[in-house]
Each structure stands twice: as structure tokens, then as C-alpha cells.
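Key idea: predict the complex, not the pieces.
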Amino acid sequence: MGKNILKRIDLIFKEEDDFKKVLEKALQSTNTELINEMIASGLKGRGGAGFPTGLKWKLTSEAQSETKFVICNADEGEPGTFKDREILTRVPYKVLTGMALCGRIIGAKEGFIYLRHEYKYLVKELNKEIDRFHAVLDELGLDFRVKIFLGYGAYICGEESALFESMEGKRGEPRNKPPYPSDFGYLGKPTVINNVETLAHTFTIFQHGSSKFNELGVKDSYGSKLFSVSGDTPTPGIYELELGMTVEDFANDFGDGDTKAVQVGGASGFCVPRKKFRETHIGYQGKLVGISLPTGGSMMLFNSSRSMFNLLTNYLEFFTEESCGQCTPCRVGTQQLLEGSRAVKRGEKPAAYLDKLLALTETMKATAKCGLGQSVANSFQSIVENFREEMIY
Amino acid sequence: MDEIKTTVQNLVKKHGKSRENLLPVLQGVAEKERYVSEYAMTLIAEEMEISAADVFGTATFYSFMDTTQRGKFIIRICRTISCYMKGKNQILLALEEALKIKLGDTTPDKKFTLLETNCIGWCHKAPAMLINDEVYTELTVEKVHSIIAEYKQLS
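Result:
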């Protein structure tokens, strides 16, 4: 599939059915050793934000509390992302193993998989897998239980503090930070919350050690990552690739020969125009030269037949619908961006109005309460800046 | 005692009274009744000893939590970017034609409700839709007609 310009990695979906052995091996190490291994791997959160996983576990392990929780964030709602569903379908035991070991390290006995309602069809098989897993934990004398918590259709609940609120029976409205989940998470208890893919990677690290993991990728962006590829491509699907690649290599590999732009990171991500393909890397900020974009893995290709105005308004419609509405910059800002773009297109507002909207996006970035509200403007800014004429004519 | 009341009482007994069980209780009612009425919300509030406003606030936040009566089969077609690019509008037209209703409506026999939803995570197999919890992908107009014909056979 694809033109194989980029090396295909096969770690995450590789069948390693003997998770018991991985558990046994890890249980021979002390918690400090395991945390250090996780830190040494350089693994960063694969949901998109990129917080170092080892550090997250360390901070939560140091928090003083009788009760702690491990939560797997399976509220995969970013448009263009579908990898977590595949992980939970094909290798759920890797995720469960990561959760159980995290539980031992931080001192948690309970774990939850917050599963988006759109994936409800997975529940039956997943519960069977959880039962099988619990039996092995009992054999090993590990006191840890996992339950599925079903979401009910809200993009914002992928934001960790909104997810806690949702699990607590409330509206999924993000909290102020700090306090961070390592101190004050679900039910106010210290909580580790990791993306599905992050947990699957921890399995590899527990199994083979950190060096097997960070021989891939580049400094500050170690390891491989699953990419959900869709849009104008002859080979849509899920691919595991090394971090650090350029968008140019990606577009040459997966494009249809006519790629005009690549949207990295979904609706809340950035639109990269062809002229910036070469200088743009996929990875976390750090050693990479030029622009570097972190992503939850959504890679959407657009060819020259696409109207960037139509794509942008589709994103903005999505956000006006999914903004939780508690803070004004996001609630009103998303509506203004949508209405304003349409007014410019219809000729009711002058082209210079786009600059006013760009100024509004700066306000949204500075004042919105949560990571979503702050990133709504990314697609607007990158599309308006790079495809201004398509917004007007 | 009316049926909804029994349902609510059983669900609260099963999950527990504390607030963090509200979503599972609401989901239980939604599954049984296919929506959560305001009456059911007040019953839940009473049973869980929380304010009805809190129950209403939570119930109306989530897009899959239907608070108006729906059909037996709720069709949710994805309207987000990849499905939009791959022609979800054609699929929507085909659904409207097959069901003889408009987007947002329920058939008179209360069998089908037609809705749009945001990204359901099948972008590589767009366009996609859900019928209740079942996923249908790589839809074409022909496929839509045959899927709906099958559902029409079901009682």
C-alpha cells in the first residue's frame, strides 16, 4: 500500500499474545526501575498533546492518596482519526497490560476505558478480552480491575478534564488547570490518563525495553506513531510510521499525485500547503529543523479539485457544534469565524474582514479555557493565511 | 407503578445513587425507551437525590442522548470532512428518498429516524453511517437502498 517511500513499522499491531510473560517480566522490576525505563524511552502522549508519559506516571506515583485511577482515553473524536478503534479491535491486551502495570506503578487498583459511543459495537468483544485479562491478573496476584465507561457523543470529552467531568455524571465541560490530573483527576483523585495508542506503546517498552522503542524516530520525537490516512489518497488506512518525517515524503507516499495540501492533526490541527511540504516535519517541537507539527495521527490529503473554503467551513461547522459552550471565546468565536467566512465569500464583508477574524483567533488562543478552544483557530489561521484567495473568490 | 419508574429504580439500584453513575443510568433509560423524556429525568433526579436541572443539563449535553422520541432505528450519517469529501450529501439524498422523510425527521410508523452526526471514525472507508450501534461504510446509493430495504423487513 502506498509507494513505500517511508519505512513501515510493525510494532503496535504485531501479535504478541503472551501478555502474561510481559506482565511477569515487568513485575520483577521495582516501580522506580519501570518509571525510569518509561522516561528513558522518550515516549510522549500519542493523543496529540505530547506530554512525556514516564513523567506523567512519576508525578502521579508521587501523589499521596489511598485511591488513584488509570484511565484509557478512547474518546477518539478528532475528525480523520480512527487508529484507536483499530488498536482496541486487534491488540486490546496491549492496552490492558499498559493500564495494569501503570496501576501497579502509581498505586491504582481501578482502571477505566472511556469508550466513545460511536464505537459501542466494540463493547462485547472488549469485555470478553477484559475478563480473560482479569483471570491472568488473578493468577499473578495483581489487584487491578478494568471497566468500560461508555461516552455518549461529545468530541470535547476527549479533553482529559472534560472526560473526568463526564465520568462524574456531569456535562463534559473542561476544568481549569492546574490542578492537573496527577493531583486531581477523576473524583478528585490522582489519575493517569493516557491515550489508547500511548498505552499500546508502553507494552512494547515493557516487553523489549526502551532502546527498542527509541531506536525509531528522531531526538525529542522518539518512536513510531500510528497515522490515520484519509481524503484524496489511493491508499487510505492506518499506517505505523516513524516520527520526524517530512510532509513532502508523506505526500509523495500517500498522495494521488495532485496533492495541494495536507491537514495534519484533524480539524483542530494545521493545514500545510504544498509550498511548505519540505520544511514541515511531523513530530514534537525540539531538534527538528523548520516547522514541526505534533499530531494525534490524523493526516488528510486534499487534491487540487478541493475548495479550501468548503473544507474550512466543514471544520467550523464541526466546532460550532462541538464547542462545549462554557467559555465565550470558543462558543462565540467559532460561530463568528463561520459566519464571518461565509459573509466574506458572499461579498457582504470586505476581504479585509478576514484580518479581523484572524485577530479574533489570536484572542481565542489567548483566552479560551481549554486546549480545544485554543486550537480551534489553527485550521482557520493556516487555511486563511495560505489560501486567502480561495476564501474570497 | 408505571413502567419507566420501575426501569429507573432498577437502574439506580444496579449502578448506585452517587452522581458518577448518572450517565450509565441515563444510558440505560435511553436504551430501553430509545430516548429520555423529561418525565424520566425527574424520576432519575428523585431516585438519585440530585436536582432535576442537573439531570437535564447532563442529558442534553450529549449528542447520542436523545431527549425527544425517536424511531426504532436511528440512522446517523457522518457529515464530517472525509465523508463530506466522499459524497455524503448523495447518501443523505438517497436515505431521504428511501425513507421518504427529511433529515431530522422520524417516519410516521416510528421505525426510522434520520440524523447527521460528527466524525464516527471511519474516514478511510467514507462515506459512513451508524444505524443504532451498527456501522455501515463505503456507502453508495445502491448500498443505501438495499440496507434500508433490509431494515424495512425487520419488525
